[in-house]
Amino acid sequence: MFLIACTSILPILLIVYYTIQRTAGHHSRNETRTMLKGLVVEAMNKHDQDFDD
After folding, report:
1. Cα separation of 34 and 37, whole Å?
2. 0.70 exceeded by the pTM?
3. Which of the 8 DSSP states describes residue 53?
């Protein structure tokens, strides 16, 4: 069931990602990597805080 849900959501996420990339300001590849790393770190910290509560 989880695999089916993930597989069905993936195309939607790709369309949203492509749309955001086209409408948002363009960034260099290094800026994009830095932003993604920041988002991942922030998500991991939030996840850790959820388990601490």
Report:
1. 5
2. no
3. -
